[in-house]
Design goal:
eight-stranded antiparallel barrel, disordered N terminus, mainly beta
């Protein structure tokens, strides 16, 4: 698997963000381990299937979009916060763009239009915490969400043009990268007797890149995800 890197506008900021992601992840993992040691004192834990839609905040020229699906495991004691482990997949929606191809063959025009398809896919593994902000009433809760973990992104590029007579100068290539990441957002939750329905808005940092090997007209995705899910209780003490 070849990893293609691209430059970032502020490399120092990228390094600081990367280090902050690692430190945040270490902190949450330590708290997570502490809670796992006291697993037998858990008051409740849940399995939470999640689905949603995300848009990219990191590319002005390409409006990348994804369909989200995730499974999350959450638990809490008598405190006002919950711990979470989440695996999320971002299913790509194709984005079509135009490009130009060139030819030295005198029998055909010098320029010809080319079609470029881009498909941004992602996979993430994250640990997080759900912090209660406001308890509107006994059935409705507003919370803050904080996650840290690892994300994998792959933006596949495919061109369609007359390859027998034309060529594309400096074409975009498929980019892929694994990196630490952090994300945060808000959540509204409604409680039922048999579970909990929730809606989330969450923003995640893109993979951090510190080396430039090949220029690209796009960057990795910084997704704004709008998700909904349902908490299915598994145990209650």
């Amino acid at each position: 698997m070849e990893i293609i890197y691209f430059d970032v506008p502020n490399p120092d900021a990228a390094i600081i963000l990367f280090e902050a992601s690692i430190n945040c992840m270490k902190f949450l993992c330590l708290l997570l381990l502490f809670n796992l040691v006291t697993v037998y004192s858990f008051a409740q834990y849940y399995i939470e299937p999640i689905a949603g839609y995300s848009i990219d905040l990191n590319n002005k020229d390409y409006k990348f979009k994804q369909i989200n699906s995730a499974i999350q495991f959450s638990w809490h004691t008598k405190s006002k916060h919950e711990w979470m482990l989440r695996v999320q997949r971002g299913w790509p929606l194709s984005v079509t763009s135009g490009d130009s191809s060139f030819s030295l063959n005198p029998a055909v025009p010098v320029y010809s239009a080319a079609k470029k398809d881009l498909r941004p896919a992602s996979l993430s593994l994250a640990a997080g915490v759900r912090l209660k902000i406001v308890e509107i009433n006994s059935l409705n809760i507003l919370s803050a969400l904080i996650y840290t973990g690892f994300t994998y992104q792959r933006i596949a590029v495919r061109y369609q043009y007359d390859k027998s007579n034309y060529t594309i100068l400096n074409p975009d290539r498929t980019l892929e990268r694994i990196s630490a990441s952090i994300s945060g957002g808000v959540e509204y939750m409604h409680l039922f007797k048999t579970g909990r329905l929730f809606f989330q808005a969450n923003v995640e940092t893109p993979p951090v890149v510190r080396k430039k090997r090949y220029p690209s007209s796009f960057r990795f995705v910084a997704p704004l995800s709008i998700n909904m899910g349902y908490s299915i209780p598994f145990s209650k003490k």
